[in-house]
Model the fold of this input.
Amino acid sequence: MIARVLTTIATLAATPCAAQLASLPAGPGELATPAPPDAPTADHATQPREFTQAITPPPPAPPVTSAAKPFLFLAGESDIFEISSSQIALQRSQSPDVRRYAVMLIQHHTLTTNQALAAAKTAGMLPPTPVLQPDERDQITRLIAVDAAGFDREYLSQQVPAHEAALALHQAYAQSGDTPQLRTVAQGAVPIVTGHLEEARKLLGAKH
Done:
């Protein structure tokens, strides 16, 4: 996931803000509209008439939101992994501290998922369906297969890099995301993910 997050962060850095997008170019053209003559003349019907009218420029193009859907996909993928791995931790861990941590992750990542979906709906977006990638499925398999004595260390060892990647993703979008509603969600997620990362490091340090 870390490589995919870094790719998205690079996209965010290269995405222009809406204010920087240029309007479509439009030059004035000329069409024929009658101009009243200065005074009627006898050969009025046979005199040529000049026509001039400026064309109204088209409205500016809407902003390009190239980073919104990748952000939604990666944030959703991160939430699914945290929730799934923590549900396994509740089934297998014998440590009260690790079990409390797992409950916290399930609650918080369910909340951030719902907030992201609501923000996407407000922004008029249909978020992509997140799925676990092969490396994350491998980690879930290891959690199921590892022996009881090594479970907590394996679980926490997965949470540290997962939350480092999630934190980098949310920080990048909070700073330069191109959809205001999602940027607000990312800003709110940063302190939550930071707390998760700090606690995972603390619990993992106690296991060594």
The domain at 65-125+134-207 is CATH 1.20.1260.10 (Ferritin).
